[in-house]
Write a structure and sequence with these properties.
Blueprint: H1 18-31, H2 41-59, H3 74-92, H4 96-109
Length: 110
């Protein structure tokens, strides 16, 4: 039996933010219009599940990090991603001058 791929849970803590919560509600309500077109209960249930999952994926996304890294805030993850992008740009540059500029930015993000 093949190993089941681990899927990270949704970042439901983001729903505490009023803006994100409202956006999620609007997205879900807009998608529920499709439920009226389903023929039977099984189709309605399938559309309902897909609606909730798709809205959650688009609006709130998945949790980041392992169980031990959940203490890292979303703001910190954003900074980590910015620093990673600068490092990639620095490492892929061909010019010494651009490398030095990117390296200085990379060190600032530390």
């Amino acid at each position: 039996m093949p190993a089941k791929k681990s899927v990270r849970p949704f970042a439901v803590a983001k729903l505490n933010n009023k803006t994100i919560s409202d956006e999620f509600c609007i997205d879900v309500s807009n998608r529920f219009a499709m439920l009226h077109h389903a023929a039977d209960f099984a189709d309605q249930w399938k559309i309902f599940q897909e609606t909730i999952k798709d809205s959650a994926e688009q609006v709130i996304g998945r949790r980041r990090g392992s169980r031990n890294k959940r203490w890292i805030s979303e703001c910190s993850w954003k900074l980590i991603d910015e620093r990673k992008a600068i490092k990639i740009a620095r490492d892929q540059t061909n010019s010494d001058e651009t490398w030095k500029i990117n390296n200085a930015e990379y060190k600032k993000k530390d």
